[in-house]
Task: inverse folding
């Protein structure tokens, strides 16, 4: 057998696909669209690394912080900048106040000219948002005139909300968030060392998402295959041998796959545009970010046609095309188990040496990880046909609908298994990843120690604010039930360079009650807590000893090595100082000395720093948080207002998790679509039989149920297998990260449930056509 | 003209049925007595099969009346007609009627199981009928493994297994050679006569129609009931 | 095949001379065997005798005498009865059936009815044969089958003709 022969047969097949009349076209279109969807998804995935890189690049380019102690002197090319990020209905808005200090001050990326005072340049998405009806509160918060838009080079996505507002008189102090810079960009963009566990997750996510796509493409290549095979009998009749016939069949599939590549590229370009103009789970990108890496794209372009040919040749093995018809090797040999166990075992073997590497001893071998996970998942597709066959052979008794389904499965368990493979692989991968995520969650999720039941929002001001006025501002705000403000300062036992020094917290009685249990309180009282936090010894005896009534202390003492001189306000410890118990759930746990405002001398007031305003909200007022942010923006544009939450997750960890969710949704939808196609095809083939069954009085319910069983049985088996493999893989992955293996039954149930739901939806969608086919019109001969 | 004939099992009067612009039936008449074999003849596309489908309550006619055993078929719900087909009618078609994944005996037992019989009882009765039609040795085979004539006999056994009062056969020998076709017809009519079942036989072959007691000719959707015309 | 009935039928469309009758007969039915004029003459004499036709007029002049015949009411009834009676199913009766169909078309009678009647008669014969076959031995079966196949061939011809009546009508009444 030579190459020319091969090429000729494949070409003949390809020509058949194109010239096969209407039916041929329909078949090829099905294949092409299926392959196309898979290709588009693959291309999008190959573009993902690029997306992250591109977003990173922009983030680095517009970086405007400095951690350097040295502030450059004011010059022709310097500018002042302060972050005024805010949140609008849970969406982040990146905000900056900029003040150029000279003619040569550099412009931020994507901005053409500095906005003047009271003006701003905005991202297109923010411009749109501000112009919309519902954004009245946001317009109040950003009362600047829009004079321009930020270009693509300054934004990390088409839907990013961002603005640069012009400012004047920004104060550059130690404590303010204002920076003086000479340029944008991360000075030393050293690549961060990626956490090996996170890298492992990324790798596994990719494999888990792409394997079902590959399985799907393999299935798509065989769309309409059974009819096609029947037509091949005609070729045998005119004298082609069985090898030639197989190659011709492969040629037809090849034509479909090639067309699929073209369609897939089209889908990809469409998807690129669509994704570039939409937002998914809070992430938006620019179309240009979605450029597939050339190498990976080339791999897709080469691998898919080859896969199409191989899959067809493999599938045709079980089919004997005789000149007068197609025989699906009637007496199929029972599937053998041993070689089907090889891939998963090989996968485990590849993963085994990496068990226990965890964070400590660093790197996982990427190839082994990919290979191992891949083999385990592929192993499902090898095992499933055996499992379905082995189980179905033993079934039989039961209701008529059950019998019909079981008998059908016995006759063609392979087709059934093929249909379910994709779902099983996706579910197994998802279960493993869920286990990995849940297992490692604690490592990437920190408890903030904050109780959102007590306080819903906190405001941190950029500079000193009088206590009472602030509280009043917020108490009057819509949706605020209570507001307590705290301030901090420092005291020492000497005017300069004190020997003993400590922090003190100032607040009204209501505020102080949030920190400690006070038997009674009136303005002018002073308390000190028995315990203290952030010290190796929690007993506060030392500080209590310092705070003896009548002792003379200085608030905000000065230090020789500091740039600024302190206020040095003298303060005598009053006689009514009382020792109290700190609350376990204190809002703030750094300082032990708690002072009501009246107990301080007036001279000390400028020494107080705001330590946040804590707000309790009325949940029934819808936009309370937006109202609060507006108040904050008015009082202090540089202040930070944020909602309390009990935990916070590592950003990267969160984005990987988000990626998995988005990817899984796509993959499952795709597989659902392919299930539907093959289901409908099967039904169409049995149209006449269905009509005959209806003619002699078969209830529609019986037939619908048998269709359901026919899908549900293999799917059920597939899910059981998927759960087994998924749990195994998940345990191995957890062991690799040195995390104790714990079963997360909730996520197992969720994932299998989602898989089952896909099948349910597919069955539901195929019911109308089934009912239509069961109409007696099907009995009419054309 | 009357819509019911004394003693007739099934009577149809002035049936009309259109599929889109084509009038498959355009005023068809029909009647059959118990134990009678009536052939419906006519050229292809004349509406023979449509007439059979209407008579069997598979397809509702656009207008006209069908009376079966004193009941008006056109006024029944789909579920009622299905139930009637399950219990009182039997069917033999030309193609595609045996469920390929079921064995022959399971196929024959199917109508009994549709009526709620237990698997065991149904298959025992089914085997009895397969014996009568001389195909009991095929019981464990799948339809794909038996010849056309054998398959058709299995189908006849299945049509008769519920002891129907009315058997509808649409070109039952259409796919068979003369010898097999005649054997099937012989077995079918013998079996029907022995149970006093009426047979509505759609065929375009005279030699098949010769197994009937009388024939009705359909032409351009019109049928004349020859017996009534005389 | 009955020449008398055929000539009678031809006269139904109007009185004709004997020679016209022969020409009309030859044109419509005498494809390979044209009628001798003598046959026409003797047939017409017989019909005259039975009162089925009458002489409508005699044309004198050169050549043989030329009688013009017209059909009587009794003649029309006779044609009607002949057409309505099915032929005994037997071999080689196509020519008779053909003549009947064409005549029916010519005389604007229902040709389909003739074919249906004939089919019913054929089927009746076939039923009898089939019944005999079912009860008889192998020899009976073979003999019956032979007859059945011939009858079936006739029936097929009937079907085909029935399907082509419109065309035939166009052709003969042109």
Result:
């Amino acid at each position: 057998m030579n190459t020319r022969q091969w090429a000729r047969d494949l070409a003949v097949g390809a020509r058949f696909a194109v010239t096969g009349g209407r039916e041929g076209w329909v078949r090829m279109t099905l294949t092409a669209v299926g392959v196309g969807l898979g290709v588009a998804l693959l291309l999008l995935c190959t573009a993902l690394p690029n997306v992250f890189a591109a977003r990173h690049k922009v983030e680095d380019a517009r970086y405007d912080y400095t951690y350097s102690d040295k502030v450059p002197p004011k010059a022709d090319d310097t500018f002042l900048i302060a972050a005024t990020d805010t949140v609008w209905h849970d969406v982040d808005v990146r905000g900056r106040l900029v003040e150029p200090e000279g003619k040569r001050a550099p412009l931020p990326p994507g901005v053409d000219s500095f906005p003047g005072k009271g003006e701003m340049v905005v991202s297109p998405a923010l411009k749109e948002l501000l112009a919309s009806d519902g954004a009245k509160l946001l317009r109040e918060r950003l009362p600047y005139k829009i004079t321009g838009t930020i270009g693509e080079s300054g934004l990390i996505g088409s839907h990013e909300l961002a603005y640069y507002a012009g400012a004047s008189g920004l104060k550059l102090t130690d404590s303010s968030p204002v920076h003086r810079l000479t340029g944008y960009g991360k000075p030393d963009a050293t690549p961060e060392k990626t956490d090996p566990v996170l890298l492992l997750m990324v790798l596994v996510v990719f494999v888990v998402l792409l394997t079902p796509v590959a399985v799907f493409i393999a299935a798509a290549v065989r769309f309409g295959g059974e009819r096609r095979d029947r037509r091949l009998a005609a070729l045998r009749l005119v004298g082609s041998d069985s090898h030639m016939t197989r190659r011709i069949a492969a040629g037809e599939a090849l034509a479909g796959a090639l067309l699929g590549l073209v369609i897939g590229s089209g889908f990809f370009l469409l998807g690129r545009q669509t994704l570039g103009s939409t937002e998914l789970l809070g992430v938006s990108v620019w179309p240009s970010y979605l450029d597939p890496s050339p190498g990976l794209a080339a791999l897709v372009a080469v691998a898919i046609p080859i896969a199409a040919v191989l899959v067809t040749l493999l599938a045709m093995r079980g089919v004997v095309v005789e000149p007068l018809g197609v025989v699906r090797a009637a007496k199929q040999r029972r599937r053998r188990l041993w070689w089907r166990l090889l891939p998963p075992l090989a996968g485990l073997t590849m993963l085994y040496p990496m068990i226990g590497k965890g964070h400590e001893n660093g790197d996982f071998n990427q190839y082994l990880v990919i290979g191992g996970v891949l083999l385990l998942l592929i192993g499902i597709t090898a095992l499933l046909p055996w499992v379905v066959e082995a189980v179905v052979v033993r079934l039989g008794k039961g209701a008529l609908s059950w019998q019909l389904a079981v008998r059908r499965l016995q006759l063609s368990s392979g087709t059934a298994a093929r249909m379910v493979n994709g779902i099983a692989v996706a579910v197994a991968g998802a279960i493993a990843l869920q286990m990995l995520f849940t297992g490692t969650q604690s490592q990437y999720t920190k408890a903030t120690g904050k109780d959102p039941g007590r306080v819903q929002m906190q405001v941190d001001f950029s500079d000193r604010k009088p206590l009472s006025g602030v509280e009043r501002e917020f108490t009057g705000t819509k949706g605020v039930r209570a507001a307590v403000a705290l301030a901090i300062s420092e005291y020492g036992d000497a005017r300069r360079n004190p020997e003993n020094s400590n922090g003190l917290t100032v607040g009204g009685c209501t505020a102080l009650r949030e920190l400690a249990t006070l038997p009674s309180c009136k303005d002018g009282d002073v308390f000190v807590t028995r315990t203290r936090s952030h010290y190796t010894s929690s007993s506060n005896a030392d500080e209590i000893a310092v705070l003896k009534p009548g002792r003379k202390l200085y608030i905000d003492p000065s230090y020789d090595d500091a740039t600024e001189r302190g206020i040095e306000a003298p303060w005598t410890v009053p006689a009514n100082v009382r020792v109290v118990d700190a609350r376990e759930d204190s809002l703030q746990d750094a300082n032990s000395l708690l002072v009501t405002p009246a107990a301080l001398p007036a001279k000390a007031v400028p020494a107080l720093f705001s330590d946040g305003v804590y707000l309790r909200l009325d949940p029934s007022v819808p936009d309370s948080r937006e109202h609060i942010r507006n108040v904050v923006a008015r009082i202090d544009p540089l202040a930070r207002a944020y909602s309390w939450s009990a935990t916070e997750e590592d950003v990267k960890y969160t984005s990987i998790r988000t990626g998995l969710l988005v990817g899984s949704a796509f993959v499952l939808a795709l597989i659902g679509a392919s299930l539907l196609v093959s289901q409908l095809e099967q039904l169409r083939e049995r149209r006449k039989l269905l009509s005959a069954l209806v003619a002699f009085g078969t209830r529609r319910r019986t037939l619908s149920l048998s269709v359901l069983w026919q899908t549900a049985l293999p799917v059920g088996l597939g899910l059981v297998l998927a759960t087994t493999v998924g749990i195994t893989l998940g345990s191995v992955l957890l062991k690799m990260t040195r995390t104790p293996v714990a079963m997360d039954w909730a996520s197992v149930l969720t994932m299998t449930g989602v898989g089952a739901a896909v099948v349910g939806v597919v069955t539901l969608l195929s019911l109308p056509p089934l009912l239509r086919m069961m109409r007696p019109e099907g009995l009419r001969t054309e | 003209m009357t819509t019911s004939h004394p003693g007739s099992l099934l009577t149809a009067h002035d049936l009309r049925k259109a599929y889109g612009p084509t009038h498959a039936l355009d005023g068809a008449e029909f009647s059959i007595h118990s134990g009678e074999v009536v052939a419906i003849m006519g050229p292809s596309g004349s509406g023979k099969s449509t007439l059979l489908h209407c008579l069997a309550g598979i397809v509702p006619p656009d207008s006209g009346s069908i009376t079966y055993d004193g009941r008006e078929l056109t006024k029944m719900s789909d579920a009622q007609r299905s139930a009637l087909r399950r219990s009182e009618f039997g069917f033999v078609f030309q193609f595609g009627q045996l469920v390929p994944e079921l064995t022959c005996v399971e196929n024959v037992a199917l109508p009994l199981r549709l009526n709620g019989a237990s698997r065991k009882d149904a298959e025992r009765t089914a085997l009895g009928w397969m014996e009568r039609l001389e195909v009991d040795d095929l019981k464990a085979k799948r339809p794909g493994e038996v010849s056309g004539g054998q398959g058709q006999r299995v189908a006849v056994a299945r049509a008769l297994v519920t002891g129907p009062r009315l058997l509808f056969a649409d070109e039952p020998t259409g796919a068979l050679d003369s010898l097999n076709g005649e054997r099937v017809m012989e077995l079918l009519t013998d079996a029907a006569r022995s149970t006093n079942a009426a047979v509505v036989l759609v065929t375009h072959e005279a030699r098949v129609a010769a197994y009937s007691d009388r024939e009705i000719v359909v032409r351009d959707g019109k049928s004349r009931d020859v017996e009534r015309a005389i | 095949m009955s020449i008398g009935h055929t000539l009678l039928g031809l006269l139904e469309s109007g009185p004709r001379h004997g020679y016209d009758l022969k020409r009309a007969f030859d044109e419509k039915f005498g494809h390979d065997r044209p009628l001798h004029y003598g046959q026409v003459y003797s047939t017409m004499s017989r019909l005259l005798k039975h009162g089925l036709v009458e002489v409508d007029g005699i044309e004198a002049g050169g050549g043989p005498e030329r009688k013009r015949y017209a059909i009587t009411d009794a003649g029309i009834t006779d044609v009607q009865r002949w057409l309505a009676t099915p032929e005994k199913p037997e071999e080689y009766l196509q020519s008779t059936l053909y003549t009947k169909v064409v005549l029916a078309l010519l005389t604007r009678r229902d040709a389909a009815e003739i074919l249906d009647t004939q089919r019913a008669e054929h089927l009746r014969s076939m039923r009898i044969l089939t019944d005999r076959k079912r009860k008889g031995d192998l020899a009976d079966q073979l003999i019956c089958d032979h007859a059945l196949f011939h009858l079936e061939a006739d029936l097929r011809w009937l079907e085909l003709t029935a399907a082509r009546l419109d065309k035939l009508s166009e052709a003969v009444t042109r």
